[in-house]
Amino acid sequence: MTTTTACSIAVLMATVILVAAATLSAAAGRCNVRKDLVIRQSLGEPQRDLSAKYTVEVVNQCSGDKERTGRPCSISKIHLQCGNFRSLVPVDPKLLRRIGSGVCLLNNGHSVRQNGNVSFVYANYRRNNLYVRSARCN
Ligand SMILES: *[C@@H]1O[C@H](CO)[C@@H](O)[C@H](O)[C@H]1NC(C)=O
After folding, report:
1. In angstroms, what is the span from residue 120 Cα to ligand 1's centroid?
2. Does 117 contact ligand 1 (Cβ within 6 A)?
3. Measuring from atom 3 of ligand 1, which residue has the nearest CA?
4. Alpha carbon distance 84, 82 (integer Å)
5. What is the C-alpha to C-alpha distance for residues 119 and 78, in angstroms, rounded to an integer?
């Protein structure tokens, strides 16, 4: 093997590694589901029976990766830590339903587009705390 060939191979390998690293960081940098999914919950509108009506909005605020891939980001399979979630008024199970102990599935697992949100109303005697447990960035 000549020095020139060895050198070309080294350059080629370095290029492959760089491209792979760039691809990985693009995928990883697309969204951070804990940061990009913002859960807004209203203060609670008092009802006659001492309960309150709360409006929840789960907003996808990821900024996407328009420069590199030209693709916006959507987030799917959103699982919330919802404790003992209860509502005195029915909540559409397609919007939120309990699927296990303390775990609720949002939007039937379907994706929420960039800048989009899923919103629902529930009523209870106290606020149900909701947190993002896991989700998938697409
Ligand atoms: C949530 O979506 C609704 C309907 O598309 C929109 O009117 C509302 O402004 C959105 N809320 C947020 C916080 O983005």
Report:
1. 11
2. yes
3. 117
4. 6
5. 13
Nearest CA to ligand 1 atom 8: 117
When divided into structural domains, the chain yields a total of 2
| Residue in the block written with tokens 């994706």 | 111
Q: Are residues 75 and 13 in the same domain?
A: no
pTM: 0.77
Could you tell me if 101 and 118 lie in one domain? yes
Residues 79 and 12 in one domain: no
Answer for the pair 104, 79: CB distance below 8 angstroms, yes or no.
yes
* Residues 12 and 68 placed together within one structural domain of the fold: no
Domain with 17, as residue range(s), is 1-30
Pairing between β-strand 103-106 and β-strand 75-81 as defined by DSSP bridges = antiparallel
One digit per residue, the tens of pLDDT, for the chain of length 138 reads 455 555 554 554 554 444 444 444 444 457 888 899 999 999 999 999 999 999 999 999 998 766 666 678 899 999 999 999 999 999 999 999 999 999 999 999 999 999 999 999 999 999 999 999 999 998
